[in-house]
Every structure is written in structure tokens, then in C-alpha cells.
Amino acid sequence: MENVDENNIKGKVSSTQQPFNVIAAIGAELECQRQKAKNVPERTGMFTVRTANRTIQEAANRPDPVPLWKSLWYEGEVCCLFADSNLGKSIYAVQIASSIAKSRKVLYFDFELSDKQFQLRYTDETTGKCHEFPPDLYRVEIARDYEYPDTSFEDALIMEIEKLSVEAECKILIIDNLSYLCLTSEKGEDAGKLMSRLMELKRKYGLSMLILAHTPKRPLNMPITQNDLAGSKKLYNFFDSVFAIGKSAKDGNLRYIKQLKVRYGSFEYGADNVIVCSIEKNDDFLQFVIVGYTTEAVHLKEITEEERARLKNEAKALHSQGVSYREIGKQLNISKTTAERYCKP
After folding, report:
1. Is the pTM higher than 0.70?
2. DSSP states of 287-317 as a string?
3. Residue 273: CB partners within 8 Å, gap ≥ 6?
4. What is d(CA 256, CA 83) in angstroms, rounded to the nearest whole number?
5. What is the Cα–Cα distance from 32 to 26, expressed in whole angstroms?
6. Is the pLDDT of residue 96 over 90?
């Protein structure tokens, strides 16, 4: 192995660093010297090159990601919250924003509600008292007199989001919702371009983004999966983390929150431990209130034998017409696997 002056390297490391960071810093510098001794470049064209050990040791000297909301969304992530219409996505997102804004600046891009609708949602109907949010929560909407530049709407929107986040010196963004970012997000190519641009902004400015998205109407007897996210699967693959809101088939007033994708932290709220909530208005603040934790299966609709027999007959009839299992599943609101099972003799 090539000679490396370890004593000289140790002298470069600050004595003020924590013991673990000192060890990591020394190890990273040693790996750097070894890499140079072996004539392996650190940068070539579009690539940076480091040994696996150096990668770990340099990363160890940076702070661990901070959870912004439970284990569902971490600092530095582009996260997705999706649900069917009228299940409370925006209510939950504003609740998240309000909580974070107690200590950090937050920009909430509201492309769903008018200012009057927002005001009424957070006003006590009896007393007329309006809710007072943390001063560092800023609600953003599109100005009516905005003159669009000679570019696409999506491009203009992304550029304006970037500009505002820089001017406001804000690194936490919540965007309600995805359809305004990319009007053609169901197309794979456009979805890929959209997510690439968002990831570029994340890396360039160290942003944390929570993006709300819709699902098509989904049956209450099926568990929530990544396939329920409206649009291309490319969207799901790009997100750092994903969680969803489902409606309880047993109690229409209950919602459950399910974690689907995790990169940092632990996978706490999967199908075996969803967060069960009710939506309540506490005087002037509409919010999700946790009532417990349970399995997702408890909140799914049970199919009767009569309904199952009907679905089997319809599936077989469609299959005899040459319809694919995937299309049968879409038409009958069942999974592709279930459609295939129903079509067997």
C-alpha cells in the first residue's frame, strides 16, 4: 500500500471537533490521499469519484437529516402526500406547515383555495374569531395580474417558485398541488422532466418540499399502494418519501395515514400501523386529531360473497372478449392479480 503521512493528516483536523467527527475526518483525508496515490481522479466530466469509505466518512461529518413531520417527511427531502378528493389533504398539509412554522420559515403555495375560502376554513363559525397562525407561515397564491413570460406555464411556475424561495430565504416549501406544477403529469416524459427540475432545486438550494397530489377514485376495499398515485410511476420513483391519506370504510368520519416510501428514518406507519385520525375543528382551527393506531385492514371494506360472485362473472366476461387483466382490474376497481384469479376456471 502506498505511504500516507497519517500524523500530518491528524494535525490538520481541528481539536474542537467531536471525537467521532475527528475520527471520520481523519479517515476521509486518509482515503483521499490513497485515492490520489492510486491515480484515481476525484472529478471527471459529470462524475465525482470517491471510495465507499471516504463517502461514508465525509457524510458522517455532516448533520443527520432532521424530521420535519414525524417520520413521514425529513429535511432535504422532496416528499409526496396523496389522497382522493375531499379527504383532507390540504387540511393536513396546513396543519404540518403550521407546526413547522413555529420554529422555521415555511412557504405554502396554495393553488386550491381562494383567500376567502381559506379564511372561512380557519374562522370560528360561532364567534367569528380567525385563527392566528405562526408569523413564519406564508401563504402564496398566483397573482391575478401576473403577465406570463414567453415560456410554458409549468416553466414559469417553477422559475417563480425558485425565485421566491431565494428572495424569502426559505428552504421549506409545501405545494398544493402537483397538477399546477405539471398540467400533463400523467405523461411519463413530462413527469420525469418535472421531478428532475424539482430535484435540481432541492440540491441547488438545500430545499425541503412537500408536494400534494391526487389519486383517481379508488375502492374502499383495496389497500393504498404506490399505484394509486395519479400519473406516471416515474413520479413515485423520484420522490424521496411518500405517504397517503385513506378513508375508513367502517367509519366515514375517520381517516388513516399510511407511509409508503422512506429514505431517512424508520418505516413506522405501514399497513400494520396506520395513524387513525378524525378531522375536527377546535374553535377556529381545522385539523387532524389522532385517535389511535391500527392495521389498514381494519378500515377496508369487506366484500360480500354476492358481490364477489358478480365481480367474477364480469371479469370472466371481459376476459372472454380479450380484455387484459390490467384493464379488467381498472374497470372493476380490483387489482390485476385479483382479476387474474377471478378469470381462472
Report:
1. yes
2. EEEEEEEE-GGGGSPPPPHHHHHHHHHHHHH
3. 293, 294, 295
4. 10
5. 10
6. yes
User: Which residues are paired to 110 by β-bridges?
Assistant: 176
Angle at 194 between CA 263 and CA 162, to 5 degrees: 90
Residue 303's pLDDT band (cuts 50, 70, 90): confident
**Do residues 62 and 17 make contact, with C-beta atoms less than 8 angstroms apart?**
no
How far is the CA of 239 from the CAs of 226, 271, 294, in angstroms? 11, 20, 26
The rounded distance, in Å, linking the Cα atoms of 333 and 328 is 8
Please report the DSSP string for 129-140 in residue order: PBP---TTEEEE
Q: CA 264 to CA 242: how far, in whole Å?
A: 12
Q: Specify whether the CB–CB gap between 260 and 226 falls below 8 A.
A: yes
In the numeric block, which cell numbers belong to residue 140?
402564496
Q: What is the mean pLDDT of the chain?
A: 87
Average pLDDT in the 249-261 region? 95
Residue 83 main-chain phi, psi, to 5 deg:
-170, 165
Strands 137-140 and 106-110: parallel
Task: Name which of 263, 293, 217, 277 is nearest 88 in CA terms.
Answer: 277
**Least confident segment among 1-15, 179-193, 285-299:** 1-15
Q: Give 193's contacts (C-beta < 8 A, 6+ positions apart).
A: none
Lowest mean pLDDT among 157-166, 214-223, 277-286: 214-223
Which tops the pLDDT comparison, 269 or 178? 269
